[in-house]
Write a structure and sequence with these properties.
Largest sheet: 4 strands, mixed
Number of strands: 8
Number of helices: 16
Distance between the termini: 48 Å
Order of helices and strands: HHHHHHHHHHEEHHEHEEHEHEEH
Oligomer: single chain
Strand order of the largest sheet: 5-4-3-6
Shape: globular
Strand content: 5-15%
Structural class: alpha+beta
Amino acid sequence: MRRELRSQRQALEGLLADFEPGVLDGLDAVAVVKELAKIKSVCAAAEARVVRRIEQSNVWRAKGHKSAAHLVASVTGTSVGSATTVMQTAEQLADLPATTKELASGRLSEAKAREIAAAAIEVPEMERTLLLGAPDESFAATRDRARRAKAAGTDQLERHRRAHAARSLRSWTDAEGIWQLHASGTPTDGARIMSRLNAETETVFKEARTAGARESTDAYRFDALVRLAETAGDGRERVRAHVFVNVDAAALTRGHTEPGERCEIKGVGPVPVATARALMGDALLTILVKRGVDVTTVAHDGTKTMPASVRRAVLARDPDCVVDTCAAPTTEIHHVEWRSDGGEHSVHNCRGVCDWCHDLVHYHGYTLEPNGD
């Protein structure tokens, strides 16, 4: 087996060694990337099976490593954290043959397989449903479906308590001298943090646009974090974040979600219904309660200012930027037919976009390419 794999690897190396991407047109380049992605998926499926064997054989002990993940990290040249993720997914896939088959065929990316496996291992009856359409949809769509299925099929309050108990914030400086920050906790607390951070990021972005500067949204978000750190405390009144919750009426009444229903914080993901109920006393909370009515039935009232009902409906429908190549949280409402051209404040005429894409459309001549429209 090792000789055959080595032979195949060397053949692939030979094929790609003299490969010149410059001879490809755009469509051919896309096709080549697609094939390379399938090769990665096939290899990921095989790797998952083999790393399981490494753990079971205890070879890592014989070689003096702390764990199988440490040995895998050493052999593959990755971090222990990355190796741990690979091994966790491998353990889940061992009990999910349908997902493993899709990954091994190259039809499912490793990232999608990881999301589906994390949900299907806890709600096995949803595996087939999650796999349907997954190869052809975006990663974000697969991720959201998987997390909703997991939230509906597990004890949400217990998951919330576990997330709170495991909350952490770590910082370190990497080998390049770059400061790093990692935080984890409950979706509710994450929503509060990101709401404040996104609001400050919007301010930083507008200041940069006025000055003629153009940098990435992530860069502006970091600047916003520094600004918040510099202005926090000093006796100032505590700032309350605006949290947007989208919940089905039946779930809100019942106290928990069932398959097909949702209770989500915009830009964060599923949360227990009890959390939504607890947040209701917050004056800066917006809860859109849906009773089986599509949010697109909300119409404008003819005023110059966008009605809150329309804005909430658009945010509920488009929690993330609708541009196909972007997955940033929605921060702006864009009118497909501009207001200056007579466009209305209606859900049909509005799309949720991020600051960056909104700026490109309004000031740099780009055309909006909405998902699914």
